[in-house]
Amino acid sequence: MSQPHRLAEGGRIDRKRPLTFTFNGRVYPAFRGDTLASGLLANGVHLVARSLKYHRPRGIVGAGVEESNALVQVGEGARSLPNLVATQVELYDGLSARSVNVFPSVGFDLRAVNGWFARLMPPGFYYKTFMWPAGSWRQYEHQIRKAAGFGVVPTGADPDDYDHMNVHCDVLVAGAGPAGLAAALEAGRTGARVILMDERTEPGGALLAGSGRIEGLPAGRWVNRMVEELASLPEVQVLARTTVAGYYEHNFLLALERRTDHLAPGSDPGPRQRLWRIRAKQVVLATGAIERPLVFCNNDRPGVMLASGVSEYIHRYAVLPGSRAVVFTNNDSAYQTAFDLLDAGAQVEAIVDSRPAGQRSAEARERGLQVMNRHAVVDVRGAKRIRGVRLMALSADGGSVSGKGRLACDLLAVSGGWSPTVQLHAQSGARPAYDARKVCFVPGPSVQAERSAGACRGSFDLQACLTEGFRAGAAAAHATGHGDGGLSRPIPSVEGREGDPIQPLWIVPAGKPVSRVPKQFVDPLMDVSAADILTAVREGYDSIEYVKRYTNLGMGPDQGRLGNVNGIAILADQHGTDPGSIGTTTFRPMYTPVTFAALSGGEQKELFDPVRKTAIHEWHVEQGALFENVGQWKRAWYFPWPGESLDEAVDRECLAVRRSVGVLDASTLGKIDIQGPDANVFLNRVYTNPFMKVPIGRCRYGLMLDENGMLMDDGVTARLGEDHYLMHTTTGGAAHVMSWLELWLQTEWPELKLYMTSVTDHWATVSLCGPNSRRVLRKLCSDVDLSRESFPFMAVREGAVAGVPARIFRISFTGELTYEVNVNANFGRHVWEAVFDAGEEYGITPFGTEAMHVLRAEKGYVIVGQDTDGSVTPVDLGMERMLGRKKDFLGKRSLFRSYLVRKDRKQFVGLLTEDPKEVLPEGGQIVDDPSAPLPRPMLGHVTSSYYSAALERSIALGLVKGGHGRTGETVHIQNFDGRTIAARIADPVFYDPKGERQNV
Amino acid sequence: MLLIECPWCGPRDESEFAYSGEAHIVRPLTPEELTDEEWADYLFCRRNTRGDHLEQWCHASGCRRYFNVQRDTVTYRIKSVYKPGEPPPGDRP
Amino acid sequence: MQKYSFLSLARNALTYHENWQRAWRSPDPKPGYDVVIVGGGGHGLATAYYLVKEHRVGSVAVLEKGYVGGGNTGRNTEIVRSNYLWDEAAHIYEFSLKLWEGLTQQINFNLMFSQRGLLSLGHTLQDLRDIQRRINANLLNGIDSEFLTPEQIKEMVPAIDVSPRARYPILGASLQRRGGTARHDALAWGLARAADSVGVDVIHNCEVTGIRREGGAVTGVDTSRGFIKAGKVGCVTAGNSGVLASMAGMRLPLESRPLQAWVSQPLKPILDVVVMSNAVHAYISQTDRGELLCGAGVDSYNGYGQRGSPATLEHAIAAIIEMFPRFSRVRMLRQWAGTVDTCPDACPIIGLTPVKGLYFNCGWGTGGYKSTPGSGWVFAYTIAQNRPHRLNEPFSLERFATGHLIDEHGAAGVAH
Question: Do C256 and B48 touch (CB under 8 A)?
């Protein structure tokens, strides 16, 4: 298979490793080391894409990150990759790619009819139309959306892995072109820890794309020597295929390493991509520059390429993108492209230079090239591939044209000057400044520990790049305490030539007003033309931010890398000012797009958030329990028998507790160990009720408020010793309560002498509930007198349970006789199983959170976060008795504000339906008049609702306006499913209202 | 990703810390003597400084201790870090 | 005002679009106005528009320190909805949503208001209780709201993962069909043009540096373009409200925080509704350009930098992939942030201040964009009548003293 445009020799491709790839269904040959773009060009394929709005045919413009036309979809199925840039896709054997957003094909795209109506689609046309008839936008939008977008989302979950790498370094060097290599080397020689990152396959940058010589060596060989020395320095790390994409506060940077994208899918077991999270003491930006296109009519046609891109294809890939070329420039750099074309065997029809004759044009003429000074390419011929150019003579100021001429060609190499890649500098918080002499934006004063070197600083000459690179490396290392800031060796010399200055040429005149000539694209990717910018200005959208938003300039996948500076300059011309006073739009991360999954770093499924399991968890799993997520905990929800529904299982579990004995894994309850002589003072301030005089060995239930007076958490605190307390918190609130207590202790009351330790995970809690719980525990515990008299309700004892040291709390959330046995978590399962063996004769039954919720609701116990929502006070809950009168406590003052003392606040009540079988919907809204017009006044809502097997009827809890004074009244509950249910307001304690069962 | 210097543990990534609002908000000693407005001022009103902000952070994934940070809320530059009980740097209105 | 329509577009096409008028004038400030609105975002422009349109106020200026819509109006994720929990919030957001429904026609500017529907996902049993409570409250407040099972969610959003494999499986959702998105720039520009058309001076590059008062009453504002006399001053500066308040010697219960958003590269249509999740802290929609437009919760610390923390971003992206495993390989194009002024109860402050003739409209936190027309309408009423409208009466500063907070953290927990 032939590659008609492949040069016989040269390039950094591996000719010993031929491969084939598929593009739009056709198979092409290429070599390892090719990109998709170079592979296509080697095979003479220029037409690769269609534009977003007008679906104009588009070709390959550049050779690297600057490419903004050639978006492709690579691969199919779940591994498919949308919107890759063909110049950045490294070929592997079997790679398959296709054009995006075309129908039916890139060669014949039906949506190209949009181009016929381009006149009806000026910038912002959608703001002015699609308004009739009223409310019809959604229908228009449906059609517009179909046309929008480029690539397609993969069809399934991602089979690949991703990870994060956190690193610290002395000096991070972004970009491994001449300046970056020099900086990394010089910094590395001082012994500093250096990381050098470059987006390309191998270091070298522009040196690999040109024909220069350094210290007498061809640039490529010099690069190899530098890379070898870098490899010999132990503290230097060089990463290819790694783009520094984001620059954040305090010298934190994100870089994306593409580890396996250049390999056949699945051929490497490691992560596909890795996000480097870098904290650098110093940063050297050596990110190079991007060549600007020139803005003339039909400048988007396939075959119009950046001159630097053409050179790079010749040198790096040994591909000649055209055989008859015209070069169009306003500066010196494109002359080298003309020479490269000539050397590679192409016919160079002419160099068209907007400037008067100078040193380079003389040199070109010496080489036999035709140079047309003070001329411009005003238009091109050909649609899917250029066939020629139209030329006109240009006035000295570049403002007008005259005469006419034509040249036939199949390649037009253009150069409108260079734009330093200042994106990372700007992301660091600095502001790029305009340099009128260099005709580009250059870095402004640094605001973080960063410096720029080389082309990204506006130094386009190789000698300057090297000089700045070595110096920046030395200075950056010195700033981190390495080296003396001086250079370790002399700077290598480069053959240099003086040149002529660039001539700003922002719109190439075409002899007619810009609004009336064929489209002169500024941002080809978004189909933004010079006329569009002028229209925007005319309509008053005349700042750069307006232009960007109104025309979409720079809003596309390339973030305006190619077109923004031209756009800014065109706007500046309209205002009669220079681009510097217009300024840039804000450069935001990312410099180039970063995969979602790489940013998340594989935090998916079980790794999305830590899973907390109790010591007894596996037992629950073995019993077939279902689980619910409570915070990060997995809690056993219920333990169904085969064939049992949730309701059936919960009824059975509840009845077991009420009639005999059930057991709950309560290990997830928050536990905070508090020790110190001032522990009681502290507790007395954070709880609403008195805590100064809890007897040793006794427990007390406490309420905790936020300073706004709202219930925040509740739980039982036990006094274990003279200065020793154990606080229980809710499962979900544990972490917050701990932080809350620490905040007050450390910042407001540092004089209090106590320590707090979270011990939630240290203890397993086996809660035995039910009338037979004492009998069961007695079989396992002989050293504690479990009788009511010596171990009453709300007491705590220490002893051995199943041979394990234990703390036993007589506290209850079910209203039954309950022993909460706490043991070292390592013995949790042992004790749990011992309890089951001991309880077998009583039909001991494990119960989950659902049954626990029912049991506590039967008793009218509140669950913070379910029955309260951050707007409920203890008074609202009917717990005034829990408020200490003679002391201050957190939140107390708030309770006395006017809105909190009102009698018509929502108050906690019980709700009983007429029909005992009917269970109210949780979240149902409570109203007085179920047929009042909307908006219908609401009294509150149902917070908890269950069927109580013990009571053989439904019960519910809720918040009702003025509910405490409305006991016995009937209200109506309405639910979105259409139900309206009457219910009677009742006392929230439905079961054993005197509390006798827990006091036995 | 701020780099915050915990006075006890040294410099660490922001993700190890929990922000805890404006520093030097002192809880009134006798809340019951305050008007509702004065209490609301303590509870809710904040300087919300654009510029140098004195704020409280907790090294939540480290030593779990609270401390104070002087940080520019526009540039995010941290100018100083000091322990609870220590006076804030410079003059304070 | 030059009328916009398909016809006007066609007519201008014939003249190569050379004859379009400015969308709105760019006048220099006059020495004084009856009312000066500080802040040229959506809320300020809407306020000015309604001041003239509804209340016939003689002379009104909007002072914008940069360009119109350059603050949060042009930085948000374009979501419009009204399914708030508490009556007070539900009423003002629903009032605003109703205004949205007629605004494109009213101001003759296509706001691309698309009622594509909005899902709020629930991942735990408590989430479901909260969702059902909110749905019921919405319905009784006359706001459309539906409950969707995981199967119904999957049917509506084929790309979503409702399987139990997820760390926090999706158990259900509320759906507001009338919720959706609208183009943020269009809102800013459409309102600027509308305000201009009724005679409001929209003044760019005019930063307020001081609020002058005499005898407890406002007399005007000092600006980067000189002193401007004003009978009344309305401040609507979102994240910078605290700065404005301090110029008038006040402190407000506000904290300014970064709120982040980001977009993917443009993709072919894959998601036609807005999906939010409080539990995993992320939300997502797809723009008409094809970008996946995503957002996170408010960053944890104060900041005026209009930059977000990458830590917040990473977690929110993980949440997006958790909900949409197919988006794993999609690439993020750019991220940005606005500065939102958050109130302790996640509800705004709209009303009078202790200074006579000075009014504040702030504290919208993450809810500002969707409320724009409603907020402007009630603020205009408040300024013109010197008393709050019944819709914004609950949102006074006094609520922080009385304790009548309207805690919307449940409904506003994730920025939206």
Answer: yes
Asked if C309 has any chain B CB less than 8 Å from its own CB, the reply is yes
Contact: C253, B21; criterion CB under 8 Å = no
ipTM at complex level: 0.97
CB contact under 8 A, C137 and A122: no
A479 — phi, psi (to 5°)? -65, -20
pLDDT, tens only, A947-958: 999 999 999 999
Query: For C300, which residue in chain B has the nearest alpha carbon?
Result: B19
CA-nearest residue of chain A to B72? A249
Closest partner CB to C302 (pick from B1, B43, B55): B55
On the question of pLDDT at A419 being above 90, the answer is yes
- CB distance A52 to A526 below 8 Å: yes
C381, part of any domain: no
Contact criterion met (CB < 8 Å) for A750 and B76? no
Residues of A in contact with B3 (CB under 8 A): 249-252, 279
User: pLDDT band for position C415 (50/70/90)?
Assistant: very low
For B43, the domain range is: 3-91
Q: Do C251 and B21 touch (CB under 8 A)?
A: no
Query: What range defines the domain where residue A212 resides?
Result: 162-289+420-479
Both ends of chain C: CA-CA distance in Å?
Answer: 33
Average pLDDT across each block of 10 residues of chain B; the chain has 93 residues. List them in order.
Answer: 97 96 96 96 95 97 97 96 89 51
| Confidence bin at A496 (pLDDT 50/70/90) | confident
pLDDT digits (tens, 9 = 90+) for C276-290: 998 778 899 999 999
Give percent above pLDDT 70 in chain C: 98
How many structural domains are present in chain A? 2
Identify from A53, A629, A864, A942 which residue to disrupt to test chain C contact, counting C C-beta atoms within 10 A and taking the largest count.
A629
User: C350: pLDDT confidence band, cut at 50, 70 and 90?
Assistant: very high
Distance, in Å, from the CA atom of A624 to the CA atom of A610, rounded to the nearest integer, reads 22
Q: How many domains does chain B have?
A: 1
Which segments of A349-392 does DSSP mark as H helices, in order?
359-366
* Average pLDDT rounded to a whole number, residues A691-695: 97
Residue A124 included in any domain = no
Interchain contact C354–B (C-beta under 8 A): no
CATH number at residue A430: 3.50.50.60
Q: Is A612 helix (H, G, I), strand (E, B) or coil?
A: strand
- The answer on pLDDT for C322 being more than 90 is yes
Residues whose CB falls within 8 Å of the CB of residue C208, separated by 6 or more in sequence, listed in order:
C38, C63, C65, C221, C222, C223, C244, C247
Specify the number of domains making up chain C.
1
pLDDT at site C416 = 35
Nearest-CB residue to B84 (from A447, A747, A888)? A747
Tens of pLDDT, residue by residue over A664-683, are 999 999 999 999 999 999 99
- Is A625 in contact with A816 (CB distance < 8 Å)? no
Is A815:A997 a contact under the CB 8 Å cutoff? yes
The answer to whether position C63 is within a domain reads: no
Cβ contact, residue pair B14, C311, below 8 Å: yes
> How far B1 CA lies from chain A's nearest CA (Å)?
6
- Please compute the mean of the pLDDT values over residues C66-75 and round it to a whole number: 95
Flag whether A850 is in a domain. yes
The CATH number of the domain where C138 resides is what?
Answer: 3.30.9.10
Q: What is the pLDDT of residue C25?
A: 96
What would the 3-class secondary structure string for C352-374 be? ECCCECEEEEECCCCCCCCCHHH
Interface test with A, best of B8, B38, B66 (most A CBs within 10 A): B66
A758 touches B: beta carbon within 8 Å: no
Contact criterion met (CB < 8 Å) for C126 and A120: no
Residue C287 lies in a domain: yes
| Calpha distance A322→C331 (Å, rounded) | 33
